[in-house]
Amino acid sequence: MVRTGPSPAPGAPPPAGGERAEMLVRLNLAVRRPAAYGGLTAVARLLDALAQAGPEGGDAVWIPDTTARLASSGFLREAFPRPQVHVVASQYGEDAHRRGWLRLDRTLTAGEHAVLAGKAVGWADSDRTLHEVTGEFGPPSAVFGPGDPDLPKTLGYATADRAAPFVAFHFGAARAGADGAALLAVRVHDGFVDGWTVTPWGEGLLV
């Protein structure tokens, strides 16, 4: 994500402490379930308002970084035939995590994260389901998308170290006879050569 300006409402006073706490609660709800809380635009507006309330202040808007042509995050955002709201939401969530705004449901230890980051790309060379991912790597730090285990979503895994890679597993709808949503791709970092992979199921859907 990149931050740019101006915002649609320049000059608005930054929120007071209580208002900022409420915005953080709303952000954590909206980024996980965008469809239920006003969509991706609402998430971006909350990020904008929180940026104004931060030490740097100022007016800003948040947009997906479409200029990094060799970034795997940008490729995965555009790679599949239908707009994948949960993919963009997970990238907003990652950006919020970098700034300490995302409340993690599970915080991986450094050891757990090292195993995950080292294993995920190779492990996802085969078709996997949501239940296989959580069985292998445990519960996620955040779920972006609907709670139904058969529906498209992204699982994010993170540590308390906000500079460490935010590992994302992107899922499509469950396949016939499969137990849980179908893993389409995993991104460990934005290195275009070795930071991500697409599963065979995902390859069949690439634009």
Highlighted features:
single chain, 207 residues, alpha+beta, five-stranded antiparallel β-sheet, two-stranded antiparallel ribbon, 7 helices
Describe this structure in words.
This protein has 207 residues and is α+β, with helices and mostly antiparallel strands. Helix 1 packs antiparallel against helix 2 (39-53). A hairpin with an 8-residue loop joins strand 6 and strand 7. The protein is built from 7 helices and 7 strands; from the N terminus they run E-H-H-E-H-H-H-H-E-E-E-E-E-H. The protein starts with a strand and ends with a helix. The strands form 2 sheets. It has a 5-stranded antiparallel β-sheet with strand order 3-4-5-6-7, sandwiched between helices. Strands 1-2 form a two-stranded antiparallel sheet.
What does the overall shape look like?
globular
Distance between the amino and carboxyl termini: 22 Å
What topology, given as strand order, has the largest sheet? 3-4-5-6-7
Overall average pLDDT: 82
Number of strands: 7
Main sheet properties: 5 strands, antiparallel
- The SS-based structural class is alpha+beta
The SSE order reads: EHHEHHHHEEEEEH
Residue stretches low in confidence (pLDDT < 50, at least 5 long) are 1-14
- Note the beta-strand portion: 5-15%
Rg computed from alpha carbons, rounded to a whole number of angstroms: 17 Å
**Fraction of residues in helix:** 25-40%
- Can you count the helices? 7
